[in-house]
Amino acid sequence: MKICFWGDIASALNGNTSGGGELQLALLAKALVKGGHEVVILDSDTSTDFITTDGIKVIKIKGWNSGLPFIRAFTHRLPKLYNSLKKQQADVYYCRIRDFRHLLAFWAARKVKAKFILGIASDLDVSNFSKRIKYFYLVNRLSLWVMFNGLLTEIIYPLLLRKADLVLVQHSGQRNILLQKSIKSQVFSNIFEQIEIQLKQDQVPDHFVYVGSLDKRKGIVDFYEMVKKSPAYKYKVIGSPRDKTALRIYQKLKKFRNVSLLGKLTQPETLHHIASSKALISTSPMEGFPNVFVEAWACGIPVLSLYVDPGGIIKREKLGFAADGDIDRMIKAMNRLGNQNGLEKRAKTYVKEFHTLTENKIAEISSLFYEVKENSVNV
């Protein structure tokens, strides 16, 4: 079976991930290839065609940067993307990360009588417009392209949710939101590729770790407030500022003796710091299913989340603490970390069962895509 993706995925395949969504696309591509399928990725940013060591074919979209800025979106980019997608004659087209251009993959799929799968990458993908205003549009720099993309996506994405042969969600909460809109979907857990972390046996955790994109959208303001309220605790911050708000706060954090700013690190380096911490801290007000949560649990480390509890996993599986937006409750939870009641074993077991890319997981993914290819129903 031939499966086609498109997007800025080549860098993630080479270990330089630009975001969680791109990482999940890369891991899914690897899983499908390991399951014996042909996977082709159309990438606009790669400089040349290549085949990864796993056997994934990456094809540069020729002429992507030709033409005049902005106008070329219509004269070059959209036509070339559609023609490139159609040319692949794939059996299944898979899209993830909110974007109106997925309509071209949908059209290509229908043109070549293939199937179209749409993957949800954030709760915002299924939430109402007012939440996207609050948690996305008002906290991002609104360039001409962002506004144009956003407007078309607001119109087109609901159509894709209803017309896709299969919608894959990250957790039951997203599925329930779509059910309220009479849209069927299937939970497809984030994939985790196990990495061995070597720690000193006598190493005692003395810090909390904060990982990810440092910007207003991801809750950097709340993290700063939490640091000010908890001077007795040490923090390691992994990531680089991505907007003016984060840059301003980053400079302020440099003055705190209990905060270590480590910048952007590789995934193995990040996992080492997570594994040697007391807990992972999250202050993001809106997510899907953060990869870093899975990474923490794979290390046997609890997640303390100010807002996000994907599908109620943290509370149900007892994998940390969800503070429901209350910073004071969050700090109290940090005080109570002494007795974990078997959390390390519980967290690692959960990740192995639902997220780790095992042979069984590969077979499960392969079976899912085969089922979509052979059937003409939504689920």
From TrEMBL:
Q: Which residues form the Glycosyl transferase family domain?
A: 198-352
What CDD domains does this protein's entry cite? GT4_PimA-like
Q: Which GO terms describe its molecular function?
A: glycosyltransferase activity
Entry keywords, A to Z: Transferase
Kindly provide the name given to this protein in its UniProt entry. Glycosyltransferase involved in cell wall bisynthesis
The organism is Tangfeifania diversioriginum
Highest taxon above the source species:
Bacteria
